Each structure stands twice: as C-alpha cells, then as structure tokens.
Amino acid sequence: GVNLMEFSDEILLHILSYVPCTDLVLNVRRTCRKLATLCLDKSLAHTVLLQKDYKVNKDKVKQLMRDIGKEIYQLNMAGCYWLPSSTIDHITRCKNLVKLNLSGCHVTSLRLSKMLSTLQHLRSLAIDVNPGFDASQLSSECKATLSRVSELKQTLYTPSYGVVPCCTSLEKLLLYFEILDRSREGFMLSGQLMVGESNVPHYQNLRIFYARLAPGYVNQEVVRLYLAVLSDRTPENLHAFLISAPGSFAETGATKNLLDSMARNVRLDALQLPKAWINGSGLLQHLKFNNPFYFSFSRCTLSGGHLIQRVINGGKDLKSLTSLNLSGCVHCLAPESLFRKAEDDIDSSILESLVVSCCNLRHLNLSAAHHHSSESIGNHLCQLLSRLKHLLSLALPVCSITDVAASVEKPPTTPNLVPQTFGRKVRIGIQTYPRNLGDQANQKIESSVFWALMGSLRFLETLEIIGSSFSSAMPRNEPAIRNSLPPCVRAQSVGDSEVAAISQLTYLQSLTLAQLPNILTGSGLVNIGLQCQHLRTLSLANLGMMGKVVYMSALMDMLKHCKCLRDLRLEQPYFCAGAQFFQALSHCSSLQRLCIVSRSGTLQSDAVMSFMANCLEVIMCHMFMGESLTVCKNLQQSIVRSFQAERPALNVVIFPLLHEDLTEVIRDVPMRHLDEITLFKSRVAEEPPNLWW
C-alpha cells in the first residue's frame, strides 16, 4: 500500500489546501510532526476563509488567531453572523493583514476603531454599518489605517456615510443599501444623514463604483448623497460605474450632470444603470468604452437595434465582454420597440450579431422576457446560443427553449386547472415515470434544439430556466403574493423531456427551474440527480399543475442521488413536507440550507425534527407554509432548543406564508441566507464576476 506521508511536500500541500483552515490548525497538525509543519506553511496560512465554515465558534477563532495570526494576510469572515462581536477583538493579532472581510458580522464603532488601529498594512476592508454607528468614535490611528485603504465594501442598514469619508485613497467602492423605510416601531425613516457627518467622500482615485439598492425610497435618497460628489468632479481613472436599483429610480439634474461628465471624460469597462436613466435617452450613444467586460441593461426598454448600434457598434469585436445581463429587457432581440408587442418573435440576426461579436461570453442572462424564435430553420435562439462555447452560467425564459413546431402542433395544457374526475387514476406510491434513462431520452428530444444546446455547453456550471411571467410568492418588503400570472402560451409544451436534457451538463453546480407548466411526473429530475453529481444548489418553483405536486415521487428519487447538494429551495403550492419527503432528503448528506415556500402547504413536525437530527450539516431551515402560527412557533422553538448548542450558526424561521407579520420576520434573517436562497431571483450576471474576493 501507499503511505500518504511518502508523498512529496508539494503534493501534500495541494491536498491540504482543500481542508478548512480551522481543521488544519486545530486538528490535522496535531496528528504527526510532518503535518504539523506543513499545516503552518505560509501557502496555507496566507489566506483564511471562514465565510461558510458554519462550525467555527469564538473559541476556535481565538485559537486560530493565536497560532497563525502573524501569518494571515487575507481573512474572510463574511456572513459569520453567529459569532459574538467580541470575536473581532482577536483579529488584532493579525498584524500583517492586507484584506479583511467582515460583512455580516456584528461590529460596533468602538471595536472597529480598536481593531483597525493595529492593522497598519490593511488595504481592503468590508464591513456593515448598523444603526448606532458613530464615526466620531473612530480614533486617529483608525482613521490613519482607513486613509490607506484602497478597496471598501460597505453594507448600510442605516443612513450614513460610514467610513467612506475617512478613506482618502479609495480606488474601489462597493455600496450595498439595505435600509428599511420604516423602523420596527413603525416610524417612517428619513434619508438624511446624521448631524455632523462629513459629506465629502474622496473619489479622486476611484476606479470602480458599485451600488446595489434594496427596494425603498430611503435607499434612493441616501445613494444620491453618495453620488452628489461624483457629479461635481468625475474621477479621471473611473472605468466601472454600476448602479443596481429595483423599480423606478428617477434621474435628477445631478445624476444627468454626472452622466454627461462621464461621457466626456472617461472610458468604461463595466456599466450598469437604473432603467429610467437609459430609457428614452441617447446616453449610450455618447458613452465611450475601452475593453468592456461587463454590461447590464436589466429591465431597460433598450431595443436590439440600439443594442447593436450603440453598444456593439454595428458588430464591433467585443471579445473582452465576459458577462452580459439582459434580464427583463423585453425588446433587446428586436430591431425596434415602438410598435412591437413583447410576445412577438425575435429577430435572429440581432442575436447572431451578439453571439459573433461577444464570442467569449461566460455569463449571459436573458430571463424575464418573451424571446420567441421564428420558424426559420437554423435561427432558433438555442441554436445560436450553442456557439458560445465558453459559457459558464446561463439564464433563459421557459418560452425560449421550446421547439417552434412543437409549440404550434401541441395544444396548450392547462396546468392551473384541477384534473378531470373521469379517466384512469394514478395509484399513490407507484412510480409513474420511466425508469430506464435511455428510453426516457428517446421519448422526445434527442433532436430538439434545447437538447442540442445542453449538449454543446458541456462546461456550464449554472443554469436558470424561469417562466417569463413567474413571480415568487414571497417578495422583499411586501406581503406574500396570493395569485400568480399564467405561463406564456409558448411555454405550455415545456416539461419533463426538456428537464431530462439538462442531465447532459456533467459539471452543473447550480440549477433553477421555475414555472415549467408541462411537468407531468418530474422524470427528468431523476436523470439530473444521477448524471449531475456536482450539483450543489437546486431551486424548483411552480412546476406542473398548481393544485397538486405532481413531481413529488420523482423529486424524492432524485434527492437520494444528490450527495453534494448544499442548498435546496422549493416553492410550490400545496407542498406536503411529510415523513417520506424528509426521509429522501436525509440522503443529501452535505445539505446545509433548506427553504420551502408553499401556499396552503403542510408539514409534519416529527418528520422535520427527525430530519434535523439525521442531517448534521443543516444550519438553515426556512419554511413558509400554510400551517397555523402556533404550529410554526412550536416547531421553530423545538428545533432551536434541540440543536442550537451543537450548531452555533443555526438559523430557523418557520412562519405562515400569508401572515401579515411576515415582512417583520424576514427582516431578522441574516443577509447571507436572505440574499442567496430565501428570496427568489435570477443570479446569473447579477454583478460583474470577481467583484469582491
């Protein structure tokens, strides 16, 4: 036999690089002298990632900093919401720290001041600014450290400039606005900053400006204050300007001056603007681009003609573009939008120009729009997209993947209606989907355009197929939606066979399927479970008929094969989270986060408790069902009481979906879980790749 210790140090270091740093330092290095030396090697201790180490606690962090603090140059503790604020005190041991991410951690002004005063080499910082933050409590030593910081990511939960005015050398500024319009007591909040705060951020060296706004007028008021300085003097080296704002964010005189100044003085590599700033304006015609790598025109009324002429310059070579977000851009594949209906066929020549010019695209989002292909042979959207061999993530509307002939010949199904009483009944518990994968594939689609597309994108890691009229039952900051819009007519034929085609994606890691009306048995899910062994994130919403979960049997069979699955989100009316479902889910030994959203859905408390006891890695359980408030509260308390001590990061929310206090409950969910899984949204090309480490 081969002894592991006989391998060279280089090979052992490579193997050890896959082990969490806490395990290396606190466990592995105690096994033998050789590993004790290797585990403290600079290549392993240089970067410490704790952002999804849900087992780490205050004592482990303390011991880690004591043992290797001086060797750490990069420390990522993003989303460690369960650690007490006193944990931050131990970071002072990391004297050589250059990059620090504390997003989602509890940090007071005084603790931040004490910590930063000792980190003289810090150049990159990410923090949250919570109510009660007071910049006047920052010491002169802290401000000296901040003056050398060139990269800042700041998440705001209260109107404030945070530490931005202290950062006089900023080159990259990322701002996340999560300020609510009302306080917990119900009082309306103002976007005015605290008295005495400096209103002169230093942007002269800025290269990247990014702002993402949660819904709400206060967020818009505060971001305008940040932009006011930019409108006076645009940084000469600015090459990425990105503002992601939901809903309506009106353009003002100050923002118009800013955009005019950018058009005159800078050449951009990345651009994203609120739709009101682009719609109806000639802005894109005047902006200059250098070697663009990211564009987002999400929810804009930009036509395909303008896209080709003003952005791609009539077919200009854009090999540098790697990420493109056209989500909700309903006319982006049509020559003009003035007299066009959203459901009209696309102009394939526009998409072909896009594919030819942007041949190195890795991330493409075309969701939330009706992209209907014509009957022209060889010009189907799927056939054109198959030329993009470098794609790693892709988001498409359901109606875009159907074969034109199939959608015309096949009468539309009626998934929202209750099945007729007469006819052959299906016995409960009997598998009604094909068990032989070869037979399943041969049933319909080996010759379909979507099957061919999936076969050509062998290295795709993220796929989203979302109905163009789909909206989640649980939006942000609003009551739950009680009624959903019917699916597009072109999407009525998309079902099990199209899902089966996805199983060709051997390297698939994240899959989202929403509003596929012709799911009859869910048989394609079993194919995915067997073939896509790298699948880590699965989100299913409103599949098949709405009055019945027709794919439950296939889903349970699929889950038995998903050994790498970490995140599961299910949104389906009348979903029964019972003993059989949780028994199947228990096969997902790597599962960490579970979210179920179900209007009129039911659950079995004993089954949930048994599942939590069997799946030791689960640290998040969110269930928004049709059960009573009493049942939900009792189950939530039982889970917390039974498992919180063993799982410090445990976050449990079980609450009636249609309860009037749902929004108050949602605001207490850690942002990491809320943003990554609990709230439904398209995440492909949502922001530029590698925006933050």
From TrEMBL:
SUPFAM superfamilies: F-box domain (SSF81383), RNI-like (SSF52047)
Signal peptide stretch: none
Pfam families in the cross-refs: F-box-like, LRR_FBXL18
Annotated F-box domain residues: 1-48
InterPro entries for this protein: F-box-like_dom_sf, F-box_dom, FBXL18_F-box, FBXL18_LRR, LRR_dom_sf
CC annotations in GO: SCF ubiquitin ligase complex
Biological process, per Gene Ontology: SCF-dependent proteasomal ubiquitin-dependent protein catabolic process
UniProt superkingdom: Eukaryota
CDD domains linked to this entry: F-box_FBXL18
Official protein name in the record: FXL18 protein
